[in-house]
Amino acid sequence: DTAVSQTPKYLVTQMGNDKSIKCEQNLGHDTMYWYKQDSKKFLKIMFSYNNKELIINETVPNRFSPKSPDKAHLNLHINSLELGDSAVYFCASSLRDGGFYGYTFGSGTRLTVV
Amino acid sequence: DQQVKQNSPSLSVQEGRISILNCDYTNSMFDYFLWYKKYPAEGPTFLISISSIKDKNEDGRFTVFLNKSAKHLSLHIVPSQPGDSAVYFCAAYGTSYGKLTFGQGTILTVHP
User: Fold this and answer.
1) Can you tell me whether residue B84 is helix, strand or coil?
2) pLDDT tens digits for B26-63?
3) Is the pLDDT of residue A96 over 80?
4) Which residue of A has its CA nearest to B38?
5) Is the pLDDT confidence value at A1 over 80?
6) Subunit contact B43:A107, Cβ cutoff 8 A
7) A60 touches chain B (CB under 8 A)
């Protein structure tokens, strides 16, 4: 039973399209995150939600909009996709204080914009 | 502004020997430091962590050392096994920031 599951695993789409990535966790965690791993392999936080409330919103274009219908789900919607959005997107979850026990990550969604 | 840095992009080690992965940070406000392991096409997996008030934490073959004065931490893997071959990410967590900040990763290759 996958703890943090993301769908789809691969997504190839044309510039200008709108797409969504879904994430679900069954760990009972309070907080969920979206991270982006770019071509240089850096993992950078985009958003975090705690119990459906937006906590962190890093410098991310407005075209990216997270939505958390409940504390087990955090989806990422991207409007007007650009070539530079191509990356691997990771969903993660943690207890409220994710320090000592860290985050549990999903397996990633590789987005390719052509 | 990269607050967590892993200056070695790769490390190659013989099976059975020690692997030492290094990480430097700039922000003295971090409360925890963590190591993650990542295989291709998978998400990062939590390995081990250390509180900023400790200088060592050990879990089986994995030991993390923290030198606060030097703002440096390292992960020791003894003995190294071919299955340890992966990308290792160092990460830091500040309770006031509420997020994990990652280094850029080090590719570890353990040769049989």
Assistant:
1) helix
2) 999 999 999 999 999 999 999 999 999 999 999 999 99
3) no
4) A107
5) no
6) yes
7) no
- DSSP assignment letter at A16: T
Task: Report the residue from B36, B98, B102 with minimal CB separation from A56.
Answer: B98
Measured distance CA(B43)–CA(B38) in Å, rounded: 6
Distance separating alpha carbons of residues B67 and B61, to the nearest angstrom: 20
Closest CA to A81 of A109, A41, A111: A111
Least Cα distance to B107 among B87, B79, B82 occurs for: B87
The SS3 of residue B103 is coil
Chain B contact set for A107 (CB, 8 A): 41-43
**Closest Cα of chain B to A69: distance in Å?**
21
Strand B62-67 versus strand B72-77 pairing type? antiparallel
Question: Length of chain A, please?
Answer: 114
Cβ A99–B93 below 8 Å, yes or no? yes
Which residue, among B99, B102, B104, B106, would best test binding to A if mutated, counting the most A CBs under 10 Å from its CB? B99
Q: Kindly report the number of other CB atoms within 10 A of residue A67's CB atom.
A: 14
Query: Using the beta-carbon criterion (under 8 Å), do B99 and A43 form an inter-chain contact?
Result: no
Token reading at A70 = 């409940």
Give the tokens for residue B78.
């003894």
How is residue A61 written in tokens? 């274009």
